[in-house]
Design goal:
Number of strands: 10
Low-confidence stretches: 1-17, 323-328
CATH class of the largest domain: Alpha Beta
Strand order of the largest sheet: 8-7-6-9-10
Order of helices and strands: HHHEEEHEEHEEEHEHEHHHH
CATH topology of the largest domain: Nucleotidyltransferase, domain 5
Mean pLDDT: 86
Structural class: alpha+beta
CATH architecture of the largest domain: 2-Layer Sandwich
Shape: elongated
Distance between the termini: 70 Å
Length: 328
């Protein structure tokens, strides 16, 4: 039983400072548009070079020039004089606001700020626009997780894996609504901080057939893991082959000598973000729910959200580079 001790030292890192933002935010100040564009070109968020597509120009390189437009710059062909937006073929071209506003909104998504509370230059940004940008951020995280199925493999030798159900498990001590429409199976790999999460909606009649749960867990959890299982599932998982040890949450709590709920409170801390998402998806359709659960998974894997989100936005748009380039 001693191998469950690491649970006691786990701490939530949801409020961790994203140092990457300390670099980005000064570039959003007025007068630093050129530096902002240089940074976006460096990471691939904007094209760093383009060629003219007019046949008579024979592929001549476009020139980067200052302009009296919202983006402060545009591309121009020295031969035919046609112009191109610096946003062409990028994440930015679908949104009608300043590039600063888009970057600020992406950072707000990373920080979990409500769409109604996004402020740019002291003024609230239009909620419908914020939601569109937020949806694109979620789409990118959804795409990334589906592209990397290895990230959904959890545990391994000497790793403590938590297995629980929402709402009928031990994920929270707070009272909840018994009329929840969705029941979720949740797995947490405590070898990471924050714990890596995988979650899936299961039929409400789960108690009639646990074979699907067992098969699901065997496909997600590596052999050699130590499983800490919610009481409802423990009788059905206690003899699962290939695991180092399988104990119930009740057995874990029995190790507490001073405070009986110490382990339960530790578990509640680990599951806090997951519980919030489990509550949020109750009113979503199946597609939205799956996307939200993959976003949760992405956020737990990449706690420095902004740094990795911009990288993954670039990867996503490079892999879907089918948009035509328009000259004006």
């Amino acid at each position: 039983m001693e191998c469950v001790a690491p649970l006691e030292s786990l701490k939530s890192t949801q409020g961790a400072q994203d140092n990457f933002q300390d670099f980005i935010r000064p570039l959003l100040l007025e007068g630093r548009e050129a530096e902002l564009c240089d940074w976006m070109k460096d990471i691939g968020l904007l094209q760093s070079s383009l060629k003219c597509i007019t046949p008579s120009c024979n592929g001549s390189s476009l020139q980067w020039k200052k302009a009296r437009i919202i983006d402060k710059f545009h591309w121009i062909c020295s031969e035919c004089k046609k112009k191109m937006s610096i946003r062409s073929g990028s994440f930015l071209e679908d949104f009608q606001c300043s590039m600063k506003g888009i970057i600020e909104t992406v950072l707000a998504w990373c920080d979990g700020i409500s769409p109604d509370d996004v402020i740019v230059d002291g003024k609230p940004l239009k909620t419908s626009l914020v939601k569109r940008i937020y949806n694109q951020c979620t789409n990118v995280t959804d795409w990334y997780i589906q592209r990397h199925p290895e990230l959904s493999q959890l545990g391994g030798e000497n790793c403590v894996i938590l297995i629980d159900l929402y709402p009928d498990g031990c994920m929270t001590t707070a009272p909840h609504n018994n009329n929840y429409s969705k029941q979720l199976l949740c797995i947490a790999d405590t070898a990471y901080m924050p714990a890596r999460i995988w979650a899936q909606v299961f039929d409400q009649d789960l108690h009639k057939d646990y074979s699907k749960v067992i098969a699901c867990l065997q496909s997600r959890i590596r052999p050699g893991s130590l499983l800490v299982v919610t009481p409802r599932l423990f009788p059905h998982l206690r003899y699962t082959e290939g695991m180092a040890e399988i104990i119930s949450v009740e057995a874990l709590m029995s190790l507490d000598t001073d405070d009986y709920q110490r382990s339960l409170k530790n578990l509640e801390t680990i599951w806090a973000t997951t519980v919030s998402v489990c509550q949020e998806v109750q009113q979503m359709n199946s597609s939205e729910t799956n996307q939200m659960l993959r976003e949760l998974q992405w956020r737990q894997i990449f706690p420095s959200h902004a740094k990795y989100l911009f990288q993954h936005i670039v990867e996503h748009y490079k892999s879907n580079k089918n948009s035509p380039i328009h000259l004006t």
